[in-house]
Amino acid sequence: MSKDNPQAAPADARVLERLGSARERIVSELSKSIVGQRRTIEELLVSIFARGHALLVGVPGLAKTLLVSSLARCLSLKFHRIQFTPDLMPSDITGTEIIQDDPATGQRRFKFLQGPIFANIILADEINRTPPKTQAALLEAMQERKVSIGGVDYRLTEPFFVLATENPIEQEGTYPLPEAQLDRFLLNIHVGYPSADEELEIMRLATGPSPAEPEAVLSGEEMIALQDLVRRIAVAEHVFLYAREIVRMSRPGDAKAPEFIKRYISWGAGPRASLGLVLAGKARAALYGRPCVTVDDVNAVALPVLRHRIIPNFEAQSEGFTPDDIVARLMEAQAKPVA
What does the pLDDT read at residue 307? Predict the structure, then answer.
């Protein structure tokens, strides 16, 4: 047992080594069809191995769909893409019951037809284009990992992840996710433009012969075992305190909140942010073959964990401060960890 955290058992070194080598192979396989995006790939892997869902935000044409489908192939997981539209109904996602004749008895009975939510990796494309009722059906499945139809619960197959995308430049005809629903996503991952060299490589790759398909690196059973390993990664007490202080400092009503937080933030991050920092930190440590979380791991995941959990006020928006700007300033002003 860890001296600082009696609940954390030492992780198996061989399994950790397996996860570290798998990370390198996954990145290598994805490079067959994906150029660059190393930070995005790492954050996706962190979210998946922490058993969390992720929101990918980026303009069209940045290969978000290709990245997620290629990742599903690397992990040997069943993949479904759902294109969200204003007329999409909850049953279009979860499935529906139909009346079917039994040829043996001649009687009619209800039969459940599974919807596309019954897969391991779900790409919820442009989730903000569908009405709140349909968004809620997806988010219920994300949280409960089951679908309820006609009073019967249908469990979703593990591992199960929802990777939702949003286009940040189009707001007309969209239904922005409420903050309470955004909080259900472990990470908010921003997918940026490629560099000049990367864009040139994309042009060569996309206009040439079809690239090789990514090969499978892990199986579904291995994924579940590695997710369990992530939960056993040790966390020292000072890292817990460090993550707690970051989140508490984001709340304008807290005594330790910096002046710019009190000035620019309406609502700070809730307790899910504290959990997210620790879980994402555990996943990152495991992906790099380390049996315990460091402060650097927490710092590395702070931006995608916090950017959708703090709410800037009108003054911040009028002065051009984004959530990323405020989180960056918060990390500079954070308290030093207690040794």
Answer: 92
